[in-house]
Amino acid sequence: MNDSFKDHALNLFSTGFHIDGRKLDEYREISYETGISNQSAEGSARVKIGMTEVVVGIKMEIGEPFPDRLDEGGIIVNAELKPFSSWKYDSGPPGINAIELSRLVDRVIREGKYLDLKKLCIEEGKRVWIVFIDIYPINDAGNLFDASILASLLALRDAKFPHIKNDRIEYKNLSDESLPLSKKIPLSCTVFICEENIIIDPDSDEENFIDARLTIGITEDNVICALQKGGMTPLTAEEIDKMVDLAMKKTKELREIIK
């Protein structure tokens, strides 16, 4: 990223606009589709925010519950950040970016009470449903957190339980039974600070000189269910208040899109 581009972007920020002409509090175009992989997954979704594209698949298995939660099923989130989606990622085991993304998606779903884990229990202490959420960014063109969380929630909403016959799961024979989801959807908005400018949904070029970010998970009742800060620059209490207020506003807009 050369200094002249950065100076140009910062000048635009100071006038209230992204480099693509959007206002600082506007998302790029958002689109989604579900049921894109019904032959290999129990639920799936693709979300695009601008040029950022994420695919999420849902798989289910029957396993044993955790020892401290004998009457609850489980969720396991895995993010695959591969070089084809961005030059920032390397091949190999999950790196720190993939781990952070997985944990944040898990936290929004779990703490937002979107999936009723108790209703995933088949036989207390013995058998429960385990829901795997696999995140595959196709193109990371900025704001990957919001795209991945939105795609994960939509894939869960698309998912159906497979039939069980003779204690075996028939993966290609899905039932009409959906996952036990709340009607109130928790969503996230990641708010960024660059110098004194507060923005949302930067593209990958703008992300290169962001000072700090705060991903805020918010329930439909306007309760914060998750927070994740990134970047080396500390945030003041006043900045956090402004970022939360903006996230409250933008998650309301996102809910209207996915309804």
Notes on the protein architecture:
With 259 residues, the protein is of the alpha+beta class. It has a single domain (22-258), classed as GHMP Kinase, N-terminal domain (Ribosomal Protein S5, domain 2, 2-Layer Sandwich). It has 5 helices and 12 strands. The strands form 3 sheets. Strands 1, 2, 3, 4, 5 and 6 form a 6-stranded mixed sheet that branches. A 4-stranded antiparallel sheet has the order 10-9-11-12, sandwiched between helices. Strand 1 and strand 2 (43-49) form a beta hairpin. The model has no long low-confidence stretch (mean pLDDT 94).
SSE layout and pairings?
Elements: H1 3-14, E1 30-34, E2 43-49, E3 52-63, E4 74-79, H2 96-111, E5 121-123, E6 127-139, H3 144-158, E7 160-165, E8 168-178, E9 187-194, E10 197-200, H4 204-207, E11 212-218, E12 224-230, H5 237-258
Parallel strand pairs: 4-6
Antiparallel strand pairs: 1-2, 2-3, 3-6, 5-6, 7-8, 9-10, 9-11, 11-12
Helix pairs in contact: 2-3
Strand content: 25-35%
- Detail the poorly predicted runs: none
What characteristic shape results from the CA principal axes?
elongated
How many strand units?
12
CATH fold type: Ribosomal Protein S5, domain 2
What is the level-2 CATH architecture name?
A: 2-Layer Sandwich
The arrangement of helices and strands along the chain is: HEEEEHEEHEEEEHEEH
Largest sheet: 6 strands, mixed
Mean pLDDT: 94
Counting helices, strands and paired strands, the structural category is alpha+beta
The top level CATH class name:
Alpha Beta
Radius of gyration: 19 Å
Say which CATH homologous superfamily is assigned. GHMP Kinase, N-terminal domain
Q: Helix coverage percent of residues?
A: 25-40%
Give the total of domains: 1
